[in-house]
Fold this protein.
Amino acid sequence: MGDGGRRWYLVVPAGGDALRQERLTRDLYVALDEAEDLEVGFVDGQASTEPGHKGAGVGDVALWATTATAIARPASQVLITAIKEWCAKERHRKVEVTYDGHSVAITGRPDAAQERVVRDFLDKVSPDRSGGPEGGGE
């Protein structure tokens, strides 16, 4: 992750179907990897090997994404827009996006209320609103 990069955690839930989740997650990876100003990779499953810890283990696939620029909000919008476009290909697609303790679900058929939730999410994680994780960086 470079200077100013923002790490996002992305999960594509598939109702317990591990093969479908893997297929969809890999498809999302390809879509995000093609977007400018984004770096994307698979979450390392080692983080969940501790006894009693539930996480992205065998059968669970998750992605991380970072914005490649220090201008956080526009790059954040690039990420969210790319996810929305990917979800729009099939109405049943869903991606759970988490950043800095805040989460939002993006679906293939968003309504006005969901669009408002996504805008509120972007406002919460924006450094100019919260003093943000990148504010005061070197």
Remarks:
- The radius of gyration is 15 Å.
- Strands lie at 7-11, 38-42, 62-67, 94-99, 102-107.
- The chain has a mean pLDDT of 78.
